[in-house]
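Chain A, query sequence.
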Amino acid sequence: MTNLFKLHGISLIIYLCFCCSCAADNRFSRPVKADSIDNPNTYREGQTFTGISSYYGKDFHGRPTASGEIYNMYAFTAAHKELPFGTVLLVKNISNSKTVQVKINDRGPFVKDRILDLSYAAADKVDLIQSGIAPVEVTILKLASE
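Chain A, predicted structure.
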């Protein structure tokens, strides 16, 4: 009976050592910086993509953005999940063909299926305020490097 306990005890020790070594392995727990891009070659100047855009306004006015800039709802800026800060985009509201040029200075949107959060001024210029969201076509005019 004691040999059986020794065998199970050794198995338990080996199992615990394995679990501890996996927990210490940073591959599974490494935090990802909000402003990092896994593959910087994913985007290029002139590239166009489409999706749904929203906007954010006065609740964030005067607060720091992910880039460190202070959010100004009257500036022509936008938030994107991956594009480098300082990247300049041409955003076209597909519903009415109105366009605005914006600079990426924040991260977001944090709502599923949205590709861009425009500042209040940018959203107003393309008539996105009333609807809150709109289908947009986005063209990268100048890709910044961080």
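The radius of gyration is 23 Å. The beta strands are 48-56, 77-79, 88-93, 99-106, 114-119, 133-142.
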